[in-house]
């Protein structure tokens, strides 16, 4: 895989978030590159999800700054962050279980007011767009199924599809392959690579090292809330600090 470089899409400066005495994210200064598939890895509890939450406005950092492209977005509300072109999915899948697959995409258009959509006549253009995206992720045959009745891996694909409804320029995925069967993991990986080839920037948290190795152009490694290494997947895998963080050697 090629190295990173070029324009920075997302960066943080000295970002910190504690829960009680736990420094979940601790003075994290990072950068992630435009047009690339960026990876964020690190042992369990190293602060990856908290970092995502601080960046996307789900929780407020205690201190530090977040920049997306040229704008400072620190402490912005999640829907406002989404409107800048930065989308995300969650480590624990978040779909509306009792809505159909198609309706999950339609409500995603108004993330701040999901209920506003229900009961309204459907906009044909939106439905067509949602169907196009379902085709893209391979869920078109499940359009009328309730989200709770499809497999966990399919729900993860649905969540990615919902994120795509906002036509994001950058997508942050928190463990897209976690708990997903190997065939679907391959489909998710292929989709990420395809969308990236069409211009979407990614930041992916994933424990599946094969997924990271095969996909990511640039990888940042967290340990105890801080970045301890950055580079290609090959480079960071050989970094003694990374081996120590993972293996305690
Ligand atoms: P990762 O995603 O890398 O596994 P997390 O960001 O989930 O790590 O967690 C980092 C640390 O912060 C862990 O010690 C975790 O227990 C703690 N933590 C995360 N969220 C909360 C919370 N809402 N309340 C208290 N502690 C939390
Ligand atoms: Mg996590």
Question: How would you describe this protein?
Answer:
By secondary structure, this protein is α/β, with parallel strands linked by helices. The chain has two domains: 1-85 and 169-249, Rossmann fold (3-Layer(aba) Sandwich); 94-167, no CATH class. It contains ten helices and ten strands. The chain has helices at residues 48-56, 78-83, 101-107, 114-117, 124-137, 152-164, 182-197, 209-215, 233-237, 240-247; strands spanning 8-19, 22-33, 37-41, 63-68, 71-72, 86-88, 170-174, 201-205, 218-223, 226-231. A six-stranded mixed β-sheet has the order 6-7-8-3-9-10, sandwiched between helices. It has a four-stranded antiparallel β-sheet with strand order 2-1-4-5, covered by helices on one side. A hairpin with a 2-residue loop joins strand 9 and strand 10 (226-231). Helix 3 (101-107) runs parallel beside helix 6 (152-164) and helix 5 crosses helix 6. The longest helix has 16 residues, at 182-197. The protein is globular, with a radius of gyration of 18 Å. The two termini are 27 Å apart. The mean pLDDT is 92. The structure holds adenosine-5'-diphosphate and magnesium ion (MG). Magnesium ion (MG) is lined by residues 48-49, 91.
* CATH-level-2 architecture of the largest domain: 3-Layer(aba) Sandwich
Order of helices and strands: EEEHEEHEHHHHEHEHEEHH
Count the strands? 10
- Tell me which ligands are bound: adenosine-5'-diphosphate, magnesium ion
